[in-house]
Amino acid sequence: MSTESPGTGSAGGGRVERPEQPEPFLRGAPWSAGQGVPYPRAKPEGPMSRLPVDTWTMARVPVGVRLEMVGDANEVEIHYRTEHATTGYLGGDEGGTFSLWRGDELVSDVNAEVGEATVRLPFGIGDDPAVVHLPERMSPTVLEVRAADGSIEPAPRGPRWLCYGDSIAEGWVVTNPGRAWPAVAGRAHDLDVVNLGYAGSCRGEIASAEELAELEADVISLAQGTNCWTRTPHSATLFREQLSAFIDIVRQGHPETPIVAVSPIIRPDAEDTPNRLGTTLVDLRRSFEDVVRERIDGGDGALTLVEAGPIVTEDQLADGIHPGDEGHQALADSIGPALAAAGGTA
Predict the structure, then answer these.
(1) What's the pTM value of the predicted model, to 2 decimals?
(2) What is the pLDDT of residues 247-290, one digit of tens each?
């Protein structure tokens, strides 16, 4: 279980207050504010943190942090503050809107302003809770949530899913944060997803394993590998041992929690190309799957393997590396049922 309570923090510089009013609606933010970040996606331990700087840089972005509510309002009004214009995933304007979803329907999508402002979103009608994704690339803080012409209340929480991964889990290059595969799978299977996807990072760092071990969870997914091919080159042996150690530490905090292990998806430039240690992505994928199978055969009945190599096709890669919206839907369609079957569905 988390050693910190969500809410207001005081560590580090900058404004880190998190008003109490929106907290019951807030999802995907298990740590307190700190280090100038209202919704950190890693433990804000301070300047001596053992997390790599690239992990903490991406943990500052509130990917997957959202508001969930039910009610009969015609519109929902969100008073907020943003710190800067959107940087987008690749320098565009993605991640700069408030978007309200009901199941697989995008009900409303409204641009955010820089500074303090209020946005009104049509609430839609349906049995699914209303899920509002924030303008995550603008460093937002939600100040107040209120109904317009009706009432709202926080949606019931589903089972908590810790989703550890890289830029693919983070939803890099999707057209809307609600289209990232963890968001799609979370809505489809009523899971309270905590997105721990770190673009350019996620190499099985021990500090990240310890954070997963500390957080409360009903189901966990682990998806890593592509950044071990080139960003920080691993040999197949190093990758194998690091993955095994990572799972060992997660299991210390979650000895019986279902874990769904997802091997790397296709990456054409890496499949058969050796890195500086002579290892291809095919080698890393094989090592990942071998470690998981060996642990299952060794008696870990709460561990599931998803072989992700065939899930996304090459034409579903928006930039040759990251899946576009269709690729993320394919991942959600494959991994979501595995999470539900493993025990994540209430």
Answers:
(1) 0.94
(2) 999 999 999 999 999 999 999 999 999 999 999 999 999 999 99
The C-alpha atoms of residue 247 and residue 242 are separated, in whole angstroms, by 9
What's the per-residue H, E or C state across the chain?
A: CCCCCCCCCCCCCCCCCCCCCCHHHEECCCCCCECCECCCCCCCCCCCCCCCHHHHHHHCCCCCCEEEEEECCCEEEEEEEECCCCCCCCCCCCCCEEEEEECCEEEEEEECCCEEEEEEEECCCCCCCEEEECCHHHCCEEEEEEEECCCEEECCCCCEEEEEECHHHHCCCCCCHHHCHHHHHHHHCCCEEEEEECCCCCCCCHHHHHHHHHCCCCEEEEECCHHHCCCCCCCHHHHHHHHHHHHHHHHHHCCCCCEEEECCCCCCCCCCCCCCCCCCHHHHHHHHHHHHHHHHHCCCCCEEEECCCCCCCHHHECCCCCECHHHHHHHHHHHHHHHHHHHHCC
Q: Which amino acid belongs to residue 6?
A: P
Cα–Cα distance measured from residue 331 to residue 266, given in angstroms and rounded to the nearest whole number = 12
Q: Alpha-carbon distance 262 to 208, whole Å? A: 17
What mean pLDDT value characterizes the chain? Answer: 92
- Residue 80's region, left for phi above 0, alpha for psi from -120 to 50, else beta, is beta
The domains of the chain, with CATH numbers, are: 23-53+63-154 (2.60.120.260), 160-344 (3.40.50.1110)
The two structure tokens encoding residue 298: 């060794």
Question: Residue 324, by phi and psi: left (phi above 0), alpha (psi -120 to 50) or beta?
Answer: beta
